[in-house]
Amino acid sequence: MKRQRKRRTTAARRPIAPLDRATNPMIPWLHGLAAMGDERWEEAIVALRHFLELVSKPKDRQQAYQNLGACYLALERYDEALAALDEAEHYARHDPELLHSRGVVYACAARLPEAIATFEELARRWPQEARRRETRETIRQLQRAQRGEIPAGSYLVGHLQEQVGHNMDMGDFHLVECKARRMIAADPNRPEGHFALGFACLEQGHYQEALDAFLAAWSHDPDYAPTLYNIGQSYLQMGQPEQAIPWLERARRREPRNLATLHQLGVACERLSRRDEAVAWWRRALKIDPDYHLVQQRLHEVSQGPAPVEPPLSPEGQRLRTLTPTVKARMKRPEVYRNGGITLTYDGEVGFVLEDTENPFNASIHAGSPFRVAHIQDADLLDLIGMVKLLLRLVNVENTRDVAVLAYYAHRPIFGYRERFPQAEGTETEHGGRFVVTEVPRFFKLRIDSDLSAPYGDPMQGTLIYLNQHPEPGVLVSTLGLLAQ
Fold it and tell me: For residue range 289-326, what is the model confidence (pLDDT) as tens digits?
């Protein structure tokens, strides 16, 4: 059944008054959510406590206390988490979500009898919800820990492992490192914590620590091909290609068609001046994937192949290229912002065109003007990024078509993320694009083609672009609510 949307008339629109940051509860609420999205838990707690001072509606207070419980749980302040859930239950005594949250706190704290009893109550009172959450399997795992068959910290390891993948996608390797160390402390004999620690250290350039962590992971699971590959990768980063080769060969024997392993074997051989072997590894990779661009480039560099040819643009990319001059021609007062190969051409009455000469696949066009233009303070930029991260976790896939983010982090490369949700399932994810920003203006681009709703504020659809132009605080160009034509 198609959804029907109520549309406001032009006459109903009124200028939006600026928010009073001292008394409007929306300010601490959004700041708390954004801080949670960026895992700045202490800041979130302060903001949510402030929110509670400003609101009296039971639903508002329940949500705030529930979020406080999540913050305290993340900080392993278990008694405070339980106290926050006690407060939330004053306003919603028959909420399975609250009961499940209580069970999670008990389980992470290794208070096994209480955790088992809580999850059993959930299964008894809300069997459908329990089936959805696989609560019976959780109970069996906790009972095994209670009998001493597995460590008491096993649940906490799994709880953190679910979060680590998202942190890796976001490029938050400092958070991965922190959680990996907690996983190792909870159960040092599980390989997952050691592997996550190695990955985080490798991405942060701490190669010896990465190697030590991957070797520890290998000692607990010697057949896991990614561990073998990353041990080889660590040796390569440390300038020891001879030590890298046997580990990469072990990884190849377990995954013979892994292109990254074949490429790195070639790199290791080339660094040892064994060029014929390097070429052989790279050609073996091309037999598996003739379009493997990285290996094509390697072979061209050693005069063993032609220069790689970029794959053709997709039909969507071709349409973007065709529309670019048309949209630009409509602009009467275009403003142009450049950052290396990235160029943004913007006219508030028409739309914008984002082009990247170094990467033709990175392009955007929007002609759904006019835009609302507002200013955002530098102090709020971190909250904007945190809210993006929270949206990527909590976006309602039943009501979402396309989510794309190009996020700016100070002192680090930009991180690109794109998720598609046709037919209510996340079927395509891209999160490997990184654009190193060395000059101003810096770009923060967020595109959300979806219908999102929050406890405070109207449903949103459209496109956000943040331009941080020094020394100006920045310009927020938004179609989250189009102006009347």
Answer: 998 989 999 999 999 999 887 777 777 778 878 888 99
Determine the Cα–Cα distance for residues 191 and 256; give it in Å rounded to an integer.
23
Residue 304 in domain = yes
CA 480 to chain centre: 22
Contact 159, 142 (CB under 8 A): no
CB 73 within 8 A of CB 41: no
* CATH number of the domain bearing residue 278: 1.25.40.10
Do both 253 and 296 map to the same domain?
Answer: yes
Are both 437 and 465 inside the same structural domain?
A: yes
Mean pLDDT (the chain) is 81
The pTM of the full predicted model, rounded to 2 decimals, is: 0.79
Buried-exposed string 130-141: b where 16+ CB fall within 10 A, e elsewhere = beebebeebbeb
pLDDT tens sequence across 405-437: 555 444 444 445 555 555 445 545 554 443 333
Alpha helices by DSSP H, listed for 75-133, are 78-89, 96-108, 112-125, 127-132
CA distance 456 to 97: 21
29 to 59, 62, 72: CA distances (angstroms): 13, 13, 17
Nearest-angstrom CA–CA distance, 44 and 36: 6
Which residue, of 366, 384, 403, is where some domain finishes? 366
Q: Are 445 and 354 in contact (CB under 8 A)?
A: yes
Task: Compute the distance between CA of residue 247 and CA of residue 243 in angstroms, rounded to an integer.
Answer: 8
| Residues β-bridged to residue 346 | 335, 352
Is residue 282 domain-shared with residue 268, that is, in the same domain?
Answer: yes
Residue 344: inside a domain: yes
Tell me the residue range of the domain where 376 lies: 372-478
Confirm if 407 and 437 have CB atoms less than 8 A apart: no
